[in-house]
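U., I forgot to send this yesterday:
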Amino acid sequence: MSAAEKMSRRDEMETLLPFYLNGSLEGAELEAVEEWLATDPAALAALGEAEAEFSSTAASNEAIRPPTDALSRFARALDAEAGPVRAPAASSWLAQMWGRFTAVPAGFAWAAAAALLALVVVQSFEQPGGMDSDFEIAGQQGDLAKMPFALVKFKLDAKMADIV
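Result:
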């Protein structure tokens, strides 16, 4: 291994030391760090530095904890700002449905009203078909009876040469 490769491996292992200390390394990374600690004498010094940084960080984080009653004071301030809690009144099913309807945001209510209006307008222009089908022929029903028609049948074993 060249000196540059040893240095990059050392940097990589030093990067993994905090995770080794808090126990979050697994698999190949854990084995690589343990091997590095067992083989490299400078690794133990790096581990000691990492432990010192880790413990000082934990101690400083615990030192800046907020007062214990700060959260409860904040919750009381929020409750006071919100006002008294109104208990839901027991009411009829119609009042409950009206309450659900009025709870819908105004944008959704207007969109639903516009969709309903569009549906009513489209349905007002829809006219029922004459023969209960999706296909209509122009003209009167009686005109079809007067028109000439031809019934064409083919044998099951007919070939194209027989048809033409």
